[in-house]
Amino acid sequence: MTTIAPEQIRITYTSQSADMEAAHKFFDEALVKVRAEAGREYPIYIDHKPVKTAEPLLPDSSPIDSSMLLGKFTAGNAAVVDQALRSAAAQKGPWRRTPWAERVAILRKAANLMRKRKFELAAVMSLEVGKSRMEALGDAEESADLIDYYCDQTEKANGFVQSMNKITPIETNTDVLRPFGVFVCIAPFNFPLALSTGMSSAALVAGNTVVYKPAQDTPLTGLKLYEVYRDAGIPAGVFNFVTGKGSVMGDPLWQHPLTDGIVFTGSKEVGLHMYAQFSAKWVKPCLLELGGKNPAIVMDSADLDMAAEGVMKSAFGLQGQKCSACSRVYVHKAVAAAFIEKLVARTKAIKIGDPTERDVYLGPVVNERAAKKFEQVMAQGKGKVEVLTGGERLKGGLFDKGWFVAPTIVKAPLSSDFFMEEFFLPLLTVGVVDSLDQALEESNKAEYGLTAGMYSKKQDEIEKFWDVIESGVTYVNKRSGATTGAWPGAQAFCGWKGSGSTGKGGCGPYYVSQFMREQSRCVIKEG
Question: Are residues 48 and 161 in the same domain?
């Protein structure tokens, strides 16, 4: 009988090439372990040393059952921020001077540890965020792949060292990319491991040191990432883990004089505030991914079953709490009735409940604030949009313990704010259009430009979609997710307009170099 190790099971967001019975067995075992450890107190880690403050501990509760306390975390303050940044600054010279191949070797160990621990990591995320099993396992797998992909980039670029042309025979010219120094990494809740890992591992492999703050809703996942890096051999002070309220720690982190760069995923408002204020004395790197209001276009030539399935999965995976989620769809009038019928039927068939169970697709939104926002949005739309399915908070049994809302589809006039405002909820708005030109025009009206999808069998329509759409990530005829599912080395995750600051995204071939600056080296040898 062959024994399968956890690291041999590979699950992504769009395909499962794995022994699923073994996967569920490993997940169940990890879930028991994580639940048994619930309620512990956890410190901040600076220089690989535990740090506590006199501030009240911050509770980390599960959105599945708000009475379940996963842990109690130290609340950082400005003094902790200063301590962490001084630690990172003290190590930026030694880490920068560590040969790039050694940095790569350490980070590859971290990727291997993630694969060995993927089921525990997934169980934590399922309980802490409300991810389904497949979403959580995909998040863990992507995290390991991100590290390896960024290590691959570094190796292929020879550590970003390149010989240049000579103007005269007596000179040697070399172009080198070098780290900026200390990066502050501020992560979101929705992909608490993958986004944290992607941002931090790129900074680290480039030779920067990092002060990392996970989202307030996901400190336990953040702690697990710190433990992976520590156990892989990242030296003390190179990666520092701080927890606390964003309102207390956010500004001190990025405004600190020792902060050389920011990498942030979160709201457009916070990100643009950082971007506008960060570079006071000189321009500093501010790498931002800032959300989306992602459209899908369904043309009259589309496979409607494919389109309905892809839009449903993209709109309601992780309860719509993805920067890449499909939150609006523009369907050609000739097929609107048939498409909407299929879309609503698939949405009504979604199994809702405890996402740690193997057959549940949709769990709770992340916290009470999100659940209340859902109610406010639906009240805002009353009489202005037509609710096709959903529209209410879910009640009774398990639903009364956590933050559950119904997956919701509304139909609205094209002038509706529902097409423009990012809700970050399981809420999809449908509009009917006369043509591809109108669909593209409506799609591009939003201030965001992250992802977009299209369903069509006509090549000329597909080419026009690519030429005109103002989005960094595009998908055509994707059954597994109309606007979602980017993977390291396969689809770069790059935001245009209000969705990003650089136009070069994570998962893509240009990401690591953004954490570095160029130095030209010319040596003259006479005689």
Answer: yes
Same domain (yes/no): 219, 317? no
Flag whether 182 is in a domain.
yes
What's the whole-model pTM score?
Answer: 0.97
Facing residues of 16 across strands? 11
Does residue 371 share a domain with residue 275?
A: no
13 has a pLDDT exceeding 90: no
**Res. 438: pLDDT tops 50:** yes
Average of pLDDT values for 45-65? 98
Stretch 92-114: mean pLDDT: 98
Same structural domain, 117 and 102: yes
Q: How many domains does the chain have?
A: 2
**Residues spanned by the domain of 436:** 294-488
Strands 161-163, 448-449: pairing kind: unpaired
Q: Which of 120, 142, 289, 461 is catalytic?
A: 289
Number of residues in the chain? 527
Q: CB–CB of 436/465 below 8 Å?
A: yes
- The question of whether 142 is a catalytic residue gets the answer no
Cβ proximity of 240 and 184 under 8 Å:
no
Q: Among 406, 329, 395, which Cα is nearest to 365's? A: 406
Percentages helix, strand, coil for the chain (3-state, rounded to 5) are 40, 20, 40
Give the mean model confidence (pLDDT) for residues 101-112. 98
Is 216 in contact with 58 (CB distance < 8 Å)? Answer: yes
Alpha-carbon distances, residue 162 vs 157, 213, 420, 521 (angstroms): 8, 34, 45, 10
- Cα dihedral value 414, 417, 418, 420, nearest 10: 90
Both tokens assigned to 41: 């107190």
One domain for residues 469 and 515: no
Q: Is residue 494 annotated as part of the catalytic site, yes or no?
A: no
**Catalytic residue from among 151, 185, 286, 323:** 323
Task: Clarify whether residues 31 and 86 are in a common domain.
Answer: yes
Establish if 138 belongs to a structural domain.
Answer: yes
pLDDT at 2 over 60: no
pLDDT digits (tens, 9 = 90+) for 42-52: 999 999 999 99
Tens-digit pLDDT profile for residues 359-370: 999 999 999 999
